[in-house]
Amino acid sequence: MREDAPPPQITVLDAGGQYCHLIARRVRQLGVYAEVRPSDATAETLTGRKGIIISGGPNSVYEPGSPSVDKALFDLGAGVLGICYGQQLMAYLLNGSVRKGDKGEYGHATLQVSVRDGLFQGLGADEPVWMSHRDQVEKPPPGFDVLASTDTCAIAAIGDPARRLYGVQFHPEVVHTPRGMQVLENFLFSICECRKDWDPRGRLDLLEEKIRETTGARNVFFFVSGGVDSSVAYRLCLRALGPERVRGAYVDTGLMREAETEFVRDSLGVEIVDAGAQFLDALQGVWDPEQKRHIIGEQFVRVQETVLQSGHYLDGDWILGQGTIYPDTIESGGTAQADLIKTHHNRVAGIQKLIESNRIIEPLTSFYKDEVREIGRELGLPDELLDRHPFPGPALAIRLLCAEQTAPVEKLPEGWMIPVQTVGVQGDSRTYRAVLVLDNPGWNEEMFARATVTVNRLQNINRVVAQSGAHAPIQRMSVVAAGLTPERLHRLRRADAIVRRLSHEAGFDSKVWQFPVILIPCGTLDRPDSVVLRPIHSVDGMTAQAVKMEEPLRSRMTSELLNAEGLCAVFHDLTHKPPATIEWE
Ligand code: XMP
Hints:
Elements: E1 10-14, H1 20-29, E2 34-38, E3 51-54, E4 79-83, H2 85-93, E5 97-99, E6 105-113, E7 126-133, E8 136-139, E9 145-149, E10 157-160, E11 165-168, H3 180-191, H4 204-215, E12 219-223, H5 228-241, E13 246-252, H6 260-268, E14 271-274, H7 276-283, H8 289-310, E15 318-321, H9 326-329, H10 349-356, E16 360-361, H11 369-378, H12 383-386, E17 407-408, E18 410-412, E19 415-426, E20 429-438, H13 446-457, E21 461-470, E22 478-479, H14 486-505, E23 517-520, E24 522-523, E25 529-533, E26 536-537, E27 545-546, H15 553-563, E28 567-573
Parallel strand pairs: 1-2, 1-3, 3-4, 4-11, 12-13, 12-15, 13-14, 15-16, 20-21, 25-28
Antiparallel strand pairs: 5-8, 6-7, 6-9, 9-10, 10-11, 17-22, 18-19, 19-20, 21-28, 22-24, 23-25, 26-27
Helix pairs in contact: 4-5, 5-11, 7-8, 14-15
This protein binds xanthosine-5'-monophosphate.
């Protein structure tokens, strides 16, 4: 339990599903504080919970090593809800049975509800639900009734009301199950008898009090990134302690988006550390993606050390403020945010020292991102800052591809191969491979499926793009040796600003989770670079779906980009993650 959170009435046990944090967020949206714990948490440590939810997960209960739960938790007297794999696990552990499905059920299904009270109170006889499973329960455990079914899943929900144990095969937590919140509400309030104890709004006074208590007489120093979390944490401390006792610094690496530094200065009022020349110098002549990341990490360390030293922030009367949020603190089932990023920035020695001596304050560790946004709104931070997409620390540098050598594009049966190296995740490891421009994409949903099949079939590529417009036919383009120069950085910055403006005007930015814009050194003599658009949907960045850009936005964006200096073509990335990653490096 986190210090500033109430004792949890609900624990979500993480069985490895990407939706486990989503379940906890939904419970909190219903006004009940929920925590996430690894699935193997012992029943003893869960005593006192009113309800326990076992999440979905990718495994099969019969596979050796698949996640399990402590069987004794079913006897704690708490309500238990197993979702998807959680239901199967419950059936398996309580002497029912599960069978391997041969065909699986993915997507929309109609739930025929046979028992419309308790868990399903207020639901209709037929309810649309979202399914994603292969295995299914074959025989409910003794004492359980079947509560609902679908055409392909005879046992889609089970329950033993006397013991308050329930399982559902569908996912009530996703938006594709329209009445899912009703099911969760029934579980929380009718079955577990929870009371409302959580609302991130209206907590400012409490949070400020806590900040004053933790800091005592000391002052707080922040490195802010311009992202939501560090900005909200900074402003919260500022409000709690006053401007005399809180300082913030923002490192301008010279790799920022257009107008970003000014925006951060104006909306947060922090000190700007101009380190642009230092970063660009160090990146001169470097084309290797991993080396770029490494150099950027190293430079960050240097600048941060200098700031800490020169501001005397390592002295005893300062502590370090950080914007750590709830998912960053959870190490379970691979869902910790920490696993999500590539090469981490090196840990600054000074920061390490502050952490080790416990001179650190993290006021947001109980909250999810959407809750942090609520707090930010109450603090009066602008929506433009609070609703921004996640943005990587190394900034535009990892969206500006470089090439060591000049090389022509190459014809393959499926399309044209562009010999730049982009990163992918195939199996457990990362790959650096070339890009394929798909012939005749057709601009329909089917092109995404073709992209997946093509990446899986071809050994030497890990991304597939469609060409959205160009000044020259693809066979006349080539990859030209290029580095991270101010000229190319300017080109990418302009392209990124055009895309951001148009997608904001069209309301498209609120429909996607992230929208990287990438510059690749592929084009003709007078227009040596091209731009790739990469709008994606995601829940947490671990997996992502490429998103189709609708007309007229795509054409409009393409023609504006082609009017910009130096740009030869505009491509649209069609590859999901996996097999590609969200970023290109
Ligand atoms: P990938 O490219 O691995 O990205 O699919 C997943 C998410 O992580 C972000 N990302 C980073 N964030 N520092 C960051 O702060 C980094 O070095 C970094 N690399 C990737 C990326 O933008 C996406 O949201």
